Amino acid sequence: MKYDYLIVGAGLFGAVFAHEMTKNGKKCIVIDKRKHLGGNVYCEKKEDINIHKYGAHIFHTNDKKIWDYVNSFVEFNRYTNSPIANYKGDLFNLPFNMNTFYQLWKVKTPKEAKAKIAEQISEVYVKKPKNLEEQALSLVGIDIYEKLIKGYTEKQWGRKATELPAFIIKRLPVRFNFDNNYFNDKYQGIPIGGYNKLIEGLLKGIETKTGVDFFKEKEALENLADKIVFTGKIDEYFDYKFGRLEYRSLQFEHEVLNTENYQGNAVVNYTEADIPYTRIIEHKHFEYGKQKKTVITKEYPKEWKKGDEPYYPVNDEKNSNIYLKYKQIAEKTDKVIFGGRLAEYKYYDMHQVIASALKKVKEE
Ligand code: FDA
Question: Which residues contact 158 (CB under 8 A, 6 or more apart)?
Answer without folding.
Answer: 248, 301, 302, 303
